[in-house]
Specification:
Chain B: It is a multi-pass membrane protein. Chain B: It is found in: Cell membrane. Chain B: It comes from Tissierella pigra. The complex is a heterodimer of chains A (314) and B (309). Chain A is built from eleven helices and no strands. Chain A has helices at residues 32-42, 44-66, 98-133, 136-151, 154-165, 174-185, 187-201, 204-211, 216-252, 264-276, 281-308. In chain A, helix 9 (216-252) packs parallel to helix 10 (264-276) and helix 10 (264-276) packs antiparallel against helix 11 (281-308). In chain A, 41% of the residues are buried. Chain B is mainly α. Chain B has helices at residues 2-28, 43-52, 59-71, 86-121, 126-140, 143-155, 169-199, 202-209, 214-226, 228-252, 257-267, 270-298, 300-308. Chain B is flat and about 85 Å long. The chains are: A mainly alpha (314), B mainly alpha (309). The interface between A and B is large, with 38 and 42 residues.
Chain lengths: 314, 309
């Protein structure tokens, strides 16, 4: 009897109401985006791509300031110098420092790519979203119009607009370049958004949410936007290299930015002349950087697509 | 299916008309006058030139005339070349470009799907890595850079490959390779993913368990189905080839339509720009239409679903 434990009443307290809830998820849930990020991180190629992009962005900001030359400063005593300790990437035929010009050019190429993708994104979301929630008839007409616009060959219209809006020999302004690039290129985004909206509008989980009493804005915020965001993000990452490529091609045809401004494409175009006289570095270096940017965005886009694809989830 | 075809053709016609209209009004909205620049020109000469190109008439009338001429296949006179009309230039340049484009397409069609199929069959093994490296290079390196690299490293070292020019088969080799790399890479990637998907399908298992040999399963069951997505993007790839040819022709000095186009841009030869743009658009839209029609015939599933509509 001595062994008996003395259990007094005040050693007990009622279980709080919350703790009795068996439905409660006790572990922190992995959020959608952290899951995507976790899977993206496992894709080595994409991480290389992401690193390249981040480095390029960083260098395009600080690169032109590093070695103290400006992109327009000409020095006729040092023309066509091969890469050396003072001019790391050499100089061009006007004695301008290529290192500074490359990063300055990368800045413009990236600005063009990112701005074009942003504008595509805005127009695409508005047009696609409207088309998705409109009546069938309006939707049909809107999509037919989009199809017609999209069958206009992309680079052809870009070239045409650059010809029209730039006077002879003066190059094209940044505004016109971006306008030309977004004129037809928003369509895939719009079609994508519309498809997603239509699909989600009829999906069972949004019906389920609605029947559980969820309000329309809540469904939009919690279901539709997160679910649409993935494919849109992939599309953006793949639009950027397309715009950069288009700009490079345009510059290469002599329709790029006005000198002394430069983009990677116009630097390559300028370097083409140097190729014949043994100054191959003038085209090879910008070429490498264009390719690196294209590579970075393309593999990042691919990796994102895989990471967002629920079928590939392990 | 007839209804679908009809709809498709109507859409193509509308697109073409839209392109022609946009091109026409864009070219005519350029401020200034194409003849004012040429120094001091006597008033009479100026007026005659205006009359020759129909620029003295009001714009809507010019538009109607231009459309009528286009229907007759007449692209008008060049503003800069005194001897050749736009039609002459297209006739001279297009066969060259078409030859180059077809050769590039041929290279891409042979090697692209083959590389992709190999990569899928040997997933995560050596052939997969090799073909993916080629695909990544093809997608990241723009064709004009590829062209210059090929000139720098191949043409300068291999004696029988010329740096540029046109006339013999050896001249077409490097430009066609440079041009084909992007579509090749694209096809290889597409083929790889569609092949991987199909290799996991149940009917492949069925075919294997029936005791069919590996090669028959791959050739008759897997590749035949995996190649379908490639056909559907063929139109886009052809359009890429066409545009890529502007740049490639410039680098290699090939007298194709792309060269005339680039030249017309640099000379501001408005009628030639308009003519070549519209000609390119016609070619592209017809090709896209043909690819779509071919696709219906190749994939019976589409035929069935489209019939219902």
């Amino acid at each position: 009897m001595d062994n008996q434990i003395n259990l007094s009443k005040d050693m007990f307290r009622p279980v709080p109401h919350e703790d009795r809830n068996p439905e409660k998820i006790r572990r922190p849930s992995i959020k959608y985006w952290s899951d995507v990020w976790r899977r993206l991180r496992q894709n080595k190629l994409s991480m290389v791509g992401l690193t390249i992009i981040l480095l390029m962005i960083l260098m395009s900001i600080i690169g032109p300031l590093i070695n103290g030359y400006s992109y327009f400063e000409q020095d006729y005593s040092k023309i066509n110098l091969h890469p050396n300790a003072i001019h790391w990437f050499g100089t061009d035929e006007l004695g301008r420092d290529q290192f500074t010009r490359i990063w300055f050019g990368a800045r413009y190429s990236l600005i063009i790519g990112i701005l074009a993708a942003t504008i595509d994104f805005i127009i695409g979301i508005l047009y696609g979203g409207l088309s998705g929630i409109a009546t069938r008839k309006v939707d049909n007409i809107m999509m037919r119009i989009a199809e017609v616009i999209y069958s206009i060959p992309y680079l052809l219209i870009v070239i045409l607009l650059s010809v029209v809006f730039s006077s002879e020999g003066s190059g094209t302004s940044l505004f016109v370049l971006i306008l030309a690039m977004t004129l037809t290129d928003w369509v895939p985004m719009a079609i994508l958004v519309r498809g997603q909206v239509l699909q989600l509008k009829e999906s069972e989980y949004s019906l389920a949410a609605e029947s559980l009493g969820a309000t329309k804005p809540w469904i939009l915020r919690k279901h539709i936007i997160p679910n649409t965001l993935g494919p849109i993000l992939v599309n953006i990452t793949l639009t950027i290299p397309r715009a950069i490529f288009a700009e490079a091609t345009l510059s290469f045809l002599g329709l790029g930015l006005q000198a002394p401004k430069s983009s990677l494409g116009s630097l390559a175009n300028d370097g083409l002349a140097g190729l014949a006289v043994g100054n191959g570095y003038q085209i090879i270096i910008p070429a490498i950087f264009i390719s690196l940017i294209m590579f970075g965005f393309n593999v990042l886009g691919d990796g994102l697509r895989d990471a967002l694809d629920p079928r590939l989830r392990k | 299916m007839k209804k679908y075809l009809f709809k498709r053709i109507i859409m193509s016609a509308i697109t073409l008309w839209a392109i022609i209209t946009i091109t026409f009004f864009l070219m005519h909205s350029i401020p200034g006058n194409p003849f004012r620049k040429e120094g001091k020109m006597p008033q009479v000469v100026y007026e005659n030139l205006q009359k020759k190109y129909g620029l003295d008439k009001p714009l809507p009338e010019q538009y109607i005339i231009y459309l009528k001429n286009l229907l007759k296949g007449d692209f008008g006179d060049s503003m800069k070349s005194k001897v050749e009309t736009v039609n002459d230039m297209i006739r001279r340049g297009f066969p060259v470009s078409a030859y180059l484009g077809l050769e590039a397409l041929f290279i891409a069609l042979i090697f692209g799907p083959a590389l992709g199929a190999l990569a899928a069959l040997y997933q995560n093994k050596f052939p997969d890595y090799i073909s993916m490296i080629i695909a990544i290079i093809g997608i990241s390196v723009p064709s004009f850079i590829m062209g210059t690299i090929l000139i720098q490293f191949v043409a300068k070292n291999v004696s029988w490959i010329p740096i540029g020019g046109w006339g013999e088969f050896k001249h077409t080799f490097l430009p066609a390779v440079a041009l084909s790399l992007m579509p090749l890479a694209y096809m290889a990637r597409l083929m790889r993913s569609s092949m991987l998907e199909i290799l996991g399908q149940d009917y492949i298992k069925t075919a294997k368990s029936k005791g069919l040999s590996k090669s028959i399963v791959i050739l008759k069951h897997a590749i035949r189905n995996a190649v379908l997505p490639i056909i559907s993007v063929l139109g886009t790839l052809i359009s890429n080839l066409l545009v890529g040819s502007f740049v490639i022709e410039k680098i290699f000095g090939i007298p194709g339509l792309g060269k005339f186009f680039v030249q017309s841009i640099n000379n501001r030869d408005y009628t030639l720009i308009m003519g070549t743009t519209i000609f390119y658009a016609i070619i592209l839209i017809v090709l896209l239409l043909l690819v779509d029609i071919a696709y219906i015939f190749i994939d019976p599933r589409i035929r069935l679903t489209k019939e219902g509509r």
